[in-house]
């Protein structure tokens, strides 16, 4: 299973990981998401990280 984790696991004030851009809820539920849900989240991550 693909994951965007880069092992830089630190949450900002919005509870978003500064390493991968996922929210705490997304990190916690990653294994429960369908492949389509994970792909949709992964597609949104570059824009999230760029907005930082």
Radius of gyration: 10 Å
The succession of helices and strands, N to C, reads HH
Q: What is the CA-CA span between the terminal residues?
A: 27 Å
Number of beta-strand segments: 0
Number of domains: 1
State the helicity in percent bands. Answer: 40-55%
The proportion of strand residues reads under 5%
Biggest sheet record: none
Please tell me the overall pLDDT.
96
The helix tally amounts to 2
What can you tell me about this protein's structure?
The structure is a single chain. With 52 residues, the protein is mainly α. It has one domain (1-52). The chain is 42% helix and 0% strand. It is built from 2 helices and no strands. The protein has helices spanning 24-29, 35-50. The radius of gyration is 10 Å and the shape is globular. The model has no long low-confidence stretch (mean pLDDT 96).
The gist of it:
The chain is an all-alpha fold and 52 residues long. Helix content is 42%, strand content 0%.
Fold topology:
Blueprint: H1 24-29, H2 35-50
Record keyword descriptors for this entry.
globular; 0% strand; 52 residues
